[in-house]
Amino acid sequence: MAFRARGWRPPPPPLLLLLLWVTGQAAPVAGLGLGSDSELQMERRFVPDECPRTVRSGDFVRYHYVGTFPDGQKFDSSYDRDSTFNVFVGKGQLIAGMDQALVGMCVNERRFVKIPPKLAYGSEGVSGVIPPNSVLHFDVLLMDIWNSEDQIQVHTYFKPPSCPRAIQVSDFVRYHYNGTFLDGTLFDSSHNRMKTYDTYVGIGWLIPGMDKGLLGMCVGEKRIITIPPFLAYGEDGDGKDIPGQASLVFDVALLDLHNPKDGISVENKLVPENCERRSQSGDFLRYHYNGTLLDGTFFDSSYSRNRTFDTYIGQGYVIAGMDEGLLGVCIGEKRRIVVPPHLGYGEEGRGNIPGSAVLVFDIHVIDFHNPSDSISITSHYKPPDCSVLSKKGDYLKYHYNASLLDGTLLDSTWNLGKTYNIVLGSGQVVLGMDMGLREMCVGEKRTVIIPPHLGYGEAGVDGEVPGSAVLVFDIELLELVAGLPEGYMFIWNDEVSPNLFEEIDKDGDGEVLLEEFSEYIHAQVASGKGKLAPGFDAEMIVKNMFTNQDRNGDGKVTAEEFKLKDQEAKHDEL
C-alpha cells in the first residue's frame, strides 16, 4: 500500500473544518497543569521511551479519546466511531482546554485531562449532551502528528560497504517494506505476501513521498521513510487500510535496481596471462557459474550439479544478456556478468527467479570450441633422425597425459606404467587422436588438442570425460612397427612358391585344414618370409584368411578354392 494506480494524483485537501460531532464546535482535548476544578489538569499516564517530536501549535494531530463526566458517565468516544479525531492544534478548532492539553504530547502518549467549564463549553453546555458548567474528563491517546511544513524524513539504518549505484528518477526497483502508522500499527507488508514491490521511481507510479524517499538508495540499503499525509494519501486515505490524514512510515529494504536503458555490465575477475583465443559468436562453451540476484540471493549454480553448462553463444540458446556477456572470454577466465531483466527473464521471471530481477552470474570458462575446428598439433621435440613417419596401418606404442583445456587430468599412461598401443587408422582411438598421431616419428613429443566432434562428442564418457569437452593429449611416441599396405593383413617378404598349395598340404590329401593352414603361415612369419599385420590378434587374422579361402564353408580348402590376393581381389588373405 503506500502506492497508487499509475497516473493517480491525490486531490488537494479541502478546507479543514473539524467541529464537534453534534454542535459544530471542535472536539475537546486534554491540557496541562494541576490545580482546582477551575483549572486545566493533566496526568501523563503513559509516555513512550522514544519521543522524537511533540505537538506544537499549528500541528495537525490524530488521536483517540474517551470523554466522561466526573461521575464516570461517558458522553463521547472516538473508539465508538472506530475513527480517530483529526484536527489542527492551536487554530481554534478545539475547545480551549483541549487546544492547550495536546501541546507537548508524543505519539503513543496517553494523557488523562480534566477541563473546567470555562475552557470547555461554559455555562451554555451542549444541548442534550453536555450540561451547563460541566467539568469534562478526557482520556487521550495520540496516534499521529504532522505539520503542513513537513517534508519526508529519511533515516538510513543500514548501508552496504559498497554502493556502486543509487536510485535515480526513472529507475525500476524491487524492494520489500513494512508499512506502519506513526504509532507503529502495521497496515501492509510485502514480506507477508512474500513478494517484492516492483515499480518505477520518480514517474508518478508511487505516492509523492515514496517517489522522493527512495531516491539515492543502494541495493542492500535499509531505510525508514516517514511521509506526511499530504505527500501520501491525504484527506481521503486509501480504502479501509489507511485512514485520511495519516502519516505513513515505511521500513524499506532495496533488493534490486536497474534502468530500462541499461545494458549488461562485465567485470573481469581473472584473465589468464596466456589467452591465445577469445570466444566468438557461434562458438560452443562449457562454463561453470553461480547465479544470484542483485542482493546476493542465490538462485542457481552449475557447481551444485557438478556439471558445466554447455551452450552455443551468439545464437539465442541462452538469455540475451548471457549471449553478449560470454563473447570475448578466454579459456580459464573468470568474470562477473550483470544482466538487467529486459536482457534476462523479463517481467515474468522463471522458476525461482522473480519477475523484473537483475541477475548476477559469476562464471568460470572451462573450454570452448567451434564446430568448424579441426585438431591442433604442437610439436615440442623431434629427434635428429625423424625420417620414418607414422602412417595408416602402422602399429604404435606411445605414452600420453590426457587433460581438459582447464588442466584437469583425465588419464595418464605414465601413471599406469604401460604404453598405449594401437594400429593407426583402424578405429581403435577417437578420430582426432588418430589424426594427431599421423606423421610422427619415434621419440617425438607433441601436444594434440581435439575438439569434441573429433573426440567423445556430446555424450562424453560417463564418469571420465565430460560431454562436449575439448581434450588435450601430451604424447610421446616410443615405438613404431610399420604396417602392411592398405587392404592386406598378410604379405610375403620373398617370392611366393609356385607350389604354395602343395607346401601347405603337407599330407598331400588335396585338402588343407585350419590346423595345417595356421601352422604354415606362422612358420613363414617366424622365418621372415611372411608378415602379419601388426597390432592385431595373429590367430584371428589366420582364421579369417582360412575362412576366406574356404569358399564353400565346409571347413577345408581345396586346390580349386585356393587363390592368392592378386587372383581374388575381393579377399585379403594371401
Automatic annotation (TrEMBL):
Residues 492-527, 537-572 form the EF-hand domain. SMART domains: EFh. It is found in: Endoplasmic reticulum. It is an enzyme of class 5 (isomerase). SUPFAM superfamilies: EF-hand, FKBP-like. It catalyses: [protein]-peptidylproline (omega=180) = [protein]-peptidylproline (omega=0). Residues 58-146, 170-258, 282-369, 393-481 form the PPIase FKBP-type domain. Its EC number is 5.2.1.8. Its main location: endoplasmic reticulum. One of its GO terms (molecular function) is calcium ion binding. Coiled coil: none annotated. One of its GO terms (cellular component) is endoplasmic reticulum. Residues 1-26 form the signal peptide. It holds the Pfam family FKBP_C. Keywords: Calcium, Endoplasmic reticulum, Glycoprotein, Isomerase, Metal-binding, Repeat, Rotamase, Signal. PPIases accelerate the folding of proteins during protein synthesis. This is peptidylprolyl isomerase.
